[in-house]
Amino acid sequence: MYAALTVMVLLALTVPASADAGLGALIAFAFLPASTSASVIAAASSLITLGISVGVSYLAAALLAPSTRAPTPQEVKTTLRNSVGSRWRHYGHVLVGGSMAMTEAKDGDLHRVIAFASHKMHAQLGWVIDGRGVAVDGAGWVTSAPYPANTVRIEYRPGDASQTAYSSLVSALGSPYWTTDHRGDGVAHAYLRARNTEPEQLSATYPNRFPELQGIFEGAEVYDPRTASVGYTANLALGLRDYLTHVDGLQIDPAYIDDADFIAAADASDVPVPIKVGGTIPRYYGALSYKYDAEPQSVLSRFITMCDGDIRLKPNGKIGFSVGVWVEPTVTITDEQIIDIDLSDGGGPLREANEYRLKYTDTSQYWAEVEAEPWRIEDEISDYGEVRSVPIEAYEVQHHNLARRLMKIAAFRGSPRWQGKIKTTLAGLRAWDQRWIRVQIADMEIDETFEVSGVEFDMASMTVVLGIASFSAAAYTFDPATEEGTAPTAAEAVPESTLPVPADFAATGSSIAVSDGVSTPAIIATWTEASRPGIRVEVQYANQSDGIWQPGGSADDGEQRLLVLGLANGATYDVRGRNVGVGSASGWVTISGVTATADSAAPAAPVITSLSGTTSASITWKMPNSPNVVAARVYRGPTGAFPGPGGDISGPIYGAPNALGSYDDSPGAGPWYYWVKAENGSGVQSAADGPETITLS
């Protein structure tokens, strides 16, 4: 029996005091159950005597009421640092920033906790850092360029009623800064850890100095009376029902919600409609975010605007809702029921606007605020030589097709053939909960459909005044091929400042003489000079035996060569180079398998002087007269073909230039072939002397 009074509370929140006088008596008497107590009727009657009046259409009330400005997409995406952060609720597919719950720096790492919503998010779909979509691995480390490995990490809690603290943050900061009690139960939040980088990578990695984190989510889970279940949806008819009943919304008892109406509105919203490029989208869908302290009329008007919605008090005392879908009127007001007429022509030169410009959210541009192609009445603009523009903010809309449909509806509503008021007998009360009625006035040749914008009931004269404006099904017909227009295209993204890798980068083994007859191994890296000024080349090397990269030095702008020293003689290396500018660096270009030698000149070949023996072989040779010779090696094979490195049977046998060397070998019976090679200190070998052959028994 409190249904009507509950609706009055809703109206007190949403309808301005200046609303038209009217229907208090109807609420107090006509729609209260027969069993209503005298005290409740008396309370309702007192409201009437105080002059409280209720407009039938909440749509008109919400749009006319003073309200706070709706948040723009950029405001929803921004992460703010406040002493007390705002509490948000998000419906639909959203990209959001949040409130900085904590920010600390320790040991060169930045630690931040960002709260996104004061409720559980259905799903987390992606992360954006400084406007760049990033991928993360299973541990939360960002793997996308330009972030170096293990530099930025994101951990997440969805907003469950009971959550756990971030153990890594507890370990990093410890008590009292962060403990296991810092759980954030019921709040969707993330922990961002950002490590320091090399100076030349700093501006590319952190272009805003401190990383700004945003999340892509499927928002709040809401109750769906169609299935009697709770789940995610982008159907904002269901989002509105949630707002009306939620403890952090208008807190209306669900018993006072006409679920039959909301079911019909949700079904109508889900109907697929064709779009210009092919395929379909739901008739009405989108996303809406609101702060818990937002003015209710502002939030209601946003729900209503994005689906051409209409909230009304039903004869059953419940709150009903419909979306913009044409329904043929069931109530007709005729000449016999009309007492007075005050209608005027709202079209032609009297039209309030001939151009409609709607701002919406483009999810393909990271939820950017964009303006749809305007809906223009070109004939009237041409005839009257004046553009009268009406701006519409509908950031809850996420598709150009819906934006254009809403502008078309607004254009019809903004230029009615007839608009004004008619005074009727009590028959006009039948229009109380009707969005559209048919009006027939023979003298004015009117027999058409009208939208009901208000009802006034005069108890003294027992008459009803209806606010009406011409409206028809044509407002909802839509041909995407000819009426959808062209969606705004994303501005071509300015590529981030990136450096190319060094052109023609190469690396070769070499040696450098450090004194008479003494050389040290080296690697010479070369490249083509960069076309941009101010670019230096950095070189690193890694011994293939351990793979550890070591700094090889850097060359200033204009240089095209770098000498790498400090290498192991005869070792094989991988060498890499990159361009480095102010605050940025290119990727690496790598050359593999470079051998560093202190002496690249091969000595002359030795001379085998004898090979003898019966059961074992004894071979002697003379070292060449080469100043860089340091050793010789003996090779053996079963045939006259040189066996290669695998045939080395002696290893290095050290000796001076012109010295004699010898080696004894017992390979077993058979014919055998022998060779000898000399080598320098870098292992560079001479040609082989041989083969000499011997048959052993």
TrEMBL record:
The chain crosses the membrane at residues 43-65. It comes from the Bacteria. Keywords: Membrane, Signal, Transmembrane, Transmembrane helix. Residues 1-19 form the signal peptide. This is Fibronectin type-III domain-containing protein. It comes from Ancylobacter pratisalsi. The lineage of its organism: Bacteria, Pseudomonadati, Pseudomonadota, Alphaproteobacteria, Hyphomicrobiales.
